[in-house]
Amino acid sequence: MENTEEPSPLRITPTVRALSSALRGKRENVPESSRGHGDRIFPEPEKLWFKESSAKNLRNRDFLSPTTMLNTLYADGQVPPAVMSRVLSLRGSGVLPMAGGEVMGEGLRVRVDRAAAFRAVLAGGATEYLKPSSQRQGCVVLNCPTLHPKPNTPTPDTLTLGQLRTILLADHMGALLRGQGFSVSYCPTLPEDSDIIAFLQALGIDWPTAPANWTNEEREEKIQEALEESAYRERETERGRRTSGGGGRKVEEGENEGALRVNLKQVFQEEGLLGYDPSLGTCTVHRDSVSHLAQLDLATADCTGAMATALHVTSCQDEFRQQQIAMLWRASGATHTQRHLVCGPVKTPGSHLTAAQYLQLRRGQMKEASEMKYGDQVEGQTWDDIIRVMTSATVRFELLSTVHTSPVTLDVQREGGVSTKGPRGGVFVMYNCARLHTLFDSYERGVEKGLYPEIPECSQLDFSALKEEGEWLLLFNYLIPFAELLDQSGQALDGEGGGARVNIKTEQICKFLVSLSKDFSSYYNRVHVLGEPLPHLFNQMFCRLYLLRALRELYHSALDTLNLPPIRQL
After folding, report:
1. pLDDT per residue over 457-475, tens digit each?
2. Taking phi first (over 0 means left), then psi (-120 to 50 degrees means alpha), and beta for anything else, what does residue 412 get?
3. Positions of the region Disordered (predicted)?
């Protein structure tokens, strides 16, 4: 019976593993001096090979095993012919096919069979390369402390740039996790007619809402009762011992002696929760805290049959307060996993802007830049939508392109403009995505005029025609690795033993898109994709169109994780 099983998508990680296995071989092939204690073999497999990425190195190799690694495995670094044969004849699920290899001064370098790789990736429209490599299960609640009432719902005019950063990060994480199969909800629910909802919608953020007269009083009462009955509640006798004599803590002026207090330190110590601030101590329970917990309870209510993970996306200034909330929730009986994604501050040297002022500034700069480039045609709803999306892209890339724990420094001088280069990479990314749409519009017009035939089936094309170095760079550095890049946020969330804080490479999608746009722009400026309508040139043109069509979809998939719709024409 014929095997109709679809071949596995090509991946970098399985290829590196297969290369390492082929190079190390069986234990008896490894010199005693390179063995570690017990059954461990040195060096570690993941250190044996490196994927190349620079255009310069990709001219002569795709993977390299450095000389230092070869010397630990083989005498004088000489790779036996049998081992070389294993390396060059690799097979396996997701493993890139090899075309050749040789030992040079820098080490053992191998090249991928590039024509076969192009065909394998592009044959199905690259759909398996535009989504996470595996689907996950679970329920994640993205809690944004910035948006909780204290006691009033925040407004755009009270929102700081640091707080805006946490909201954008929560929105980005939600899109990433939902794409991996997680059930995602957001906390808190906001009044549907509030100014903050209109502000978030202007940035393309779809946050959950409820009618203005909606209340969560029933859940608040339940939380209050649970805390009053909690084993971690501080009893009057304990409070008396702390507030009388012996240098213990005294009741502060204005503090309600009958207030409900919970020993948070006891919570994380007795329940073995790591990474919480040892100075949390005992906390007085206020109404806004109960409201916060009730919102969390609501957000996790639909997580039936599965334990939820609450990811608190907070600023470094509010981290201590959010740890208090997390332990209060635990004291109320909640057993969900809680992790804290902490953002560094946003600095604006020489200026102090609210989130509303910042968005207004960037929108004005975007409109001015558009009018300078396109003149009087910048008017009407279409251009309003373009400017809105481009402004959102600028803001998102400015605040999300930096490691989330590090500070962000913004240039908010009003005389500055919005550039297509540099730190405001969002405009540059959107512009290059639009260039791909324009290219295919031009091709379709050429088909209508009879200049070009329709794109044939992939099986009819010879992909060895893709010899320009930029073409392989776009496939090998972007299309093939993208699925594994998408996997990382869910994997980080699953990490055990990391304590309360979780560090996720949230900046990688923005950096990926900016790097992709630079390499695509360089290629597009150098190569004339739609050539003369001559039959002997069609094969190469169609191969390029297959590649660039997959690249256009790659842009769409990456921008989806930022909740940015593509701009199709500029």
Report:
1. 999 999 999 999 999 999 9
2. alpha
3. 1-41, 230-256
Q: Say whether pLDDT at 533 is over 80.
A: yes
Cβ-proximal residues to 267 (8 Å cutoff; 6+ apart), any chain: 232, 273, 327, 330, 331
Q: Is the pLDDT of residue 242 over 70?
A: no
* Cα-based distances in Å from 251 to 244, 248, 284, 286, 541: 9, 10, 12, 16, 79
Residue 50 and residue 64: Cα distance in Å, rounded? 5
Which residues make beta-bridge pairs with 188?
none
Task: Extract the runs of DSSP E, i.e. beta strands, from 60-147.
Answer: 63-66, 98-104, 107-112, 139-143
Report the pLDDT averaged over residues 92-113: 93
- Secondary structure class of 112 (helix, strand, coil): strand
Nearest CA to 204 among 473, 564, 557?
564
Strand positions, DSSP E, 254-307: 261-263, 282-284
The token pair at 162 is 């640091």
Alpha carbon dihedral 467, 473, 479, 485, in 10-degree steps, equals 160
* Beta-carbon contacts of residue 74 (< 8 Å; ≥ 6 apart): 31, 80, 83
The token pair at 217 is 């009083």
Percent of the chain exceeding pLDDT 90 equals 71
Q: Are strands 183-187 and 139-143 parallel, antiparallel or unpaired?
A: parallel
Amino acid letter, residue 82: A
The closest of 5, 94, 93 to 483, measured between CA atoms, is 94
Question: Residue 256: its pLDDT value, please?
Answer: 55
Grade residue 245 by pLDDT with cuts at 50, 70 and 90.
Answer: very low
For residues 336-374, b (16+ Cβ closer than 10 Å) or e, as one string? Answer: bebbbbbbbebeeeeeebbbbebbebbbebbbebbeeee
| Percent of the chain at pLDDT exceeding 70 | 88
Model confidence band, residue 305 (pLDDT cutoffs 50, 70, 90): low
This prediction's pTM: 0.90
Distance between CA atoms of residues 156 and 359, nearest Å: 10
Closest CA to 317 of 200, 503, 146: 146
Residue type, 228: E
More confident residue, 86 or 4: 86
What gap in Å lies between CA 406 and CA 570, rounded to an integer? 34
- Which phi and psi (to 5°) does residue 9 adopt? -60, 145
How far is it, in rounded angstroms, from Cα 177 to Cα 243?
Answer: 47
